[in-house]
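Summary for the funding panel

The consortium committed to producing paired sequence-structure records for every protein in the target list. Below we show the first two records in order, beginning with the earlier of the two.
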Amino acid sequence: MAGIADSGLHDYEVVRLSCDYSRGEFSLELKDPVGQPENLFIGGVLSVEMTRTQPWGEGSYIVSSDIKDCDSGSKLAEIQLNSGDEIRVEYK
């Protein structure tokens, strides 16, 4: 599976997002551009944000993804969908 950074998940389809609060874990079920199932797992989760307002219309495909360093020393994974919605996960 491609990485999150530098839009490595472009054209992957988001199928399901799940979180385990007590363990601080995030998982994302995806389909790659040819329809094969893939899973993305992130541990050490500090926060998860997801919008589903669909400002650009319906859609569940990733148009961009990246990882940024935060001032606190954590990392921020950012995923934008073709609907205009975003998934943001901050983790250690």
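The next record, for a separate protein in the list, is shown here:
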Amino acid sequence: MTNQTHRVAPSAAVGLFGLGLALLGVGRFVQLNDNSGFGGEEWIMPLGVLALLAALASLVVAAQDSRARLWLGAVLAALVALLVWQTTTNPGFRFIWAGSEGELVMLQVGLGLLALVLLATGFQPRSSREVGRAGRGSGAGGAGRWMVRGAVSLCCCALITYVAAMAGIAHFEAVECTDPDEMCELAGLQGLVWGVIALPASLVVALVIELVLRRRRRQRVS
């Protein structure tokens, strides 16, 4: 019975995600020849909502089984590679958003990070022994799950970078754009600078935290 459950969960997770992609295609959220730039006017919004629900359901199913997380993570990684390929080679390609406005890049980064988390937790699932140790407050649980910690750190770094970029844009608009009718073309540039500064800084902080935690674990073992 357990083996059957392990066989069904991965296919169910991937199947639900595939259903979501199919609904996006039928709902005109995926287009290959939108050279006019007005493809968004053809969207069928109810199908978009159903696609989102199917994607969320696939994540819920994948959360129950490590193999399902591996399968779904691999599918997401392949989807990101496909999106990058199409957006760089096909000017008429649209996937939910228009790539020229930057939203598609954010979606690709988000899907890539989600794929990384799914793959990490699939390759290094939390063992029952670690769960027991965490419940007793020993603090030793998860010491060997370096992939999971790395994926979480990258997600945090990406979030900090995004917040810093948005803060840079808001700061430029508040200081430089005193006229409400003035176009602040350079606001995005300052946001980019702040984000570029925040990314390596957050990576350094994550590395320092990891080294400190590793040192504490070694002290407990000794």
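Regarding this second record: The longest strand covers residues 30-31. The first helix runs from residue 2 to 26.
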